[in-house]
Amino acid sequence: LALLLGLPLALSAEPPSCAPLVPVTLDNDTIPRILGEWIYIVGASSYPPHLEELKVLKYTAFSIFPGSHEDELNVTEIMRVNETCVVRNGSVIHVFRHNSTLVHVDDQTTATAKLIQSDKDLLILRHLHNNYLGLSLS
């Protein structure tokens, strides 16, 4: 996994740096970049309930497509949680352009994140939950 994650750095023309994670401004140019099919690669969190979820999550694929409103995106998720396949069709991502946040809402929970500047084929989200931080790569 480390080799896979380090491959883009090895192939880039610029040497790696310790640059901070830079959130993307959500506008008409960045929203279409989020649309499409994504495979969850890895995540980390300091929020205790998320730590428990990460232990049992084996695989996740999700599709993001336009919703019924300009700042709303629909999400279909397929997950393997231990030995159970879970499909969620009813979740929505609300886009808040004024503070560049994404709020994922499903039947039970709400999660807030910021899109981090990255390559077009990598979706990096910085998750915010009170004072707990998290990061995911897809």
From TrEMBL:
The keyword Heme does not apply. InterPro entries: Calycin. It comes from Leptosomus discolor (Madagascar cuckoo roller). It comes from the Eukaryota. This is Alpha-1-acid glycoprotein. GO terms for cellular component: extracellular space. Its main location: secreted. It is found in: Secreted. SUPFAM superfamilies: Lipocalins. Keywords: Glycoprotein, Secreted, Signal.
